Structure formats: structure tokens, C-alpha cells
Amino acid sequence: MGHLVRAGGVWNSGQIVPRDWLKRAITPAVMIQDGRRYGYHWYLGASTAAASQRLELWVGGIGWGGQRLYVFRELDLVVAHYCGNYQKPITEQRRINSVVLPEVVLPSFV
Q: Which of 7, 23, 32, 85 is the Cys-Cys partner for 66 at CB 3.0 to 4.6 Å?
């Protein structure tokens, strides 16, 4: 996804995702909780690396149980979180992502 977004839907010299659809998919359509926005089935938000306090924009997929996929276009970074917290409340499902991304992953890249 990260490369596709940066390359306008092109992979190995072929247009595999229409450029216009990709642009619309990652354009905010509605505002949702926590200051995030939502496009065509993609969430748009920002995270901060703990040490730098610099906002890093992401496009992501958010699923049940703590499943997350983040694409940080400016960092050329894709992060996938696979968690099995299906039986836990939503706040518990988010807890791992809320710590690992800003405290461990992003400081390695910014």
C-alpha cells in the first residue's frame, strides 16, 4: 500500500489501482473520533514519535481485536499489528497499538 500510494497506483510499471480511486480513497470524507478522518474504507490520522513530538501522518486500516495497518507515506513505512484481543473492550484492543507505535516503532524512523 505504501508504494502504491506514493506511486499513484503503479506497481512494476503497471497501473494496478486507478489513480483517481486511490486519491479519493485517501481523501477525508468525514471526521470521526480522536481527530481522525475517514476516506473510502481507510482511516486517516497522525501519530507522534514519543521523543520527537513530530506528527507523522498515516493512512490505515483498523480492524476488530487490535488489528491495524498503518502506511506512513513520508517515512516510506508500513506497520502491521496483529493482535487477538477480540474478547476485550475497545480500549484494551487499542492499548498495544497506542504504546508500540509511538514508543517503539516511530522513534526508529524519525
A: 85
